[in-house]
Design brief:
Layout (H helix, E strand, L loop, with lengths): L17 H18 L1 H6 L1 H13 L1 H14 L4 H33 L21 H8 L4 H7 L2 H18 L4 H21 L3 H16 L1 H32 L4 H18 L2 H15 L3 H14 L2 H17 L6 H14 L9 H13 L4 H35 L19
């Protein structure tokens, strides 16, 4: 006889997600900064502890992610024509995303007027000769670079090491397994310390508002508007433009991608939308052989929404800190971001580890991360959705590049599945 005992429901506190806790922290932190500015300023130590823990995991994340992503891509010979076409497609999309986010931030200047506590303590990078920049990017020891927190040297070493693993083939399998395990453990570490994010966000928002007043709220609102406008603009102009340029049926594509987009928007998780994405791009008409090669690579190497946001957030913090970046510094930052954004798909808040690595290397204040984390919950839905749309556009473009044709009709009896 089946049991009639009522199923225990989770407590109220367990039903609140981490994102909701961070939004609650923002709602509490903003008025607290106005009401009790002196007390709010003393809370800065809470966000400082959180940021130190983020810094502690940078080196393991970079080594694990970059070596796994680059070395695990298969041999150069096995990559084949499809793989190379996919890589060209990804690099074009992510480069345009990076430049788009950077350009929107320079145009709208959302960080101007925002005062970040502790920003004056940041060490601004010195302008040095180009040959010295190149020399300083080459490590003499990985351990030394990790100990000093020199992110650029770590990126250079891990990139070359990953290429060497790819060339070594099966002999490098134990190394790649280790890198994969290290990355997984590092992200679990990140997951654990993210439980400190709500008090860190509360402390950061309170101390920032106490220092900057209404200008902070105006700056965060401008960042929100800039983020949504740039993400939507990229999706329509770049991704939509690529579909039109390759003569992919636009209305049919929108019909089949609408559900993965909505799942990603509702869950803020590319992983949750992945089954729908793979199924629906096949129903749209992309051949399985293209999906099998392009889709796995796209998930790691084609993070358009995340790449755009990281560029935008970097310039926002530089503007808020009053740091003027030279052209050489901007180009070096863009090149560093181009590499460090690879392979972090599906990892909640992994963008903040990437930003922490960049900020530490280029003298931007880490305190800006906690401020970004406060508004991130409002930006994450559209950022994740653009990532997912990019995962659908890339296989369709590569399929057309290969000469595939798609039906042009739009099904009328295709009721959307319910989101999980």
């Amino acid at each position: 006889m089946p049991s009639t005992a009522p199923v225990a429901r989770p407590s109220f506190w367990r039903r609140i997600s981490l994102v909701q806790w961070m939004l609650i922290a923002v709602v509490i932190g903003i008025p607290l900064g106005f009401i009790a500015p002196e007390f709010s300023a003393s809370l800065k130590i809470v966000s400082d502890v959180f940021l130190r823990l983020i810094r502690a995991i940078i080196a393991p994340v970079l080594f694990g992610v970059l070596v796994r992503a680059i070395g695990g891509g298969g041999s150069v010979r096995d990559l084949g024509r499809l793989g190379w076409e996919a890589l060209v497609c990804f690099e074009v999309f992510t480069t345009l995303a990076l430049l788009g986010g950077w350009g929107i931030a320079l145009l709208l200047r959302p960080g101007v007027g925002v005062e970040i506590p502790g920003a004056s303590e940041a060490v601004v990078a010195q302008t040095v000769a180009f040959d010295q920049v190149i020399l300083n990017a080459v490590p003499t020891s990985l351990i030394d670079a990790m100990a000093r927190g020199d992110v650029l040297q770590m990126v250079v070493f891990c990139t070359i090491f990953g290429v060497a693993c790819m060339l070594a083939g099966e002999k490098a399998r134990p190394v790649l397994d280790f890198a994969g395990s290290l990355a997984d453990v590092a992200f679990k570490f990140t997951h654990v310390i993210m439980y400190l994010a709500p008090p860190a966000v509360l402390a950061a928002m309170a101390s920032t508002v106490a220092a900057g007043g209404l200008d902070v709220l105006v700056g965060l609102l401008k960042l929100f508007v800039a983020a949504w406008a740039s993400q939507l603009g990229f999706m329509v102009l770049v991704l939509g433009g690529a579909l039109v340029a390759f003569r992919v049926p636009l209305r049919r594509f929108i019909h089949f991608m609408r559900e993965p987009f909505l799942v990603a928007f509702a869950t803020t998780s590319s992983a949750a939308a992945l089954p729908h994405t793979l199924e629906d791009i096949e129903r749209f008409g992309v051949p399985r052989r293209v999906i099998g090669m392009v889709a796995p690579l796209s998930i790691s190497l084609n993070l358009n929404g995340s790449t755009l946001h990281i560029a935008l957030a970097t310039v926002f913090v530089a503007q808020a800190a009053g740091i003027s970046l030279s052209l050489e510094q901007q180009l070096l930052m863009l090149a560093t971001l181009k590499i460090t954004t690879k392979g972090v798909a599906g990892i909640p808040r992994a963008n903040f580890v990437v930003l922490a690595a960049l900020f530490q290397n280029f003298g931007l204040p880490l305190e800006g991360l906690a401020v970004l984390l406060g508004i991130d919950a409002l930006i994450d839905p559209i950022r994740t959705s653009v990532n997912v749309v990019g995962h659908g556009v890339a296989p369709a473009v590569v399929a057309r590049w290969e000469g595939a044709t798609f039906p042009t009709d739009v099904p009328t009896d295709d009721a959307p599945r319910s989101a999980p």
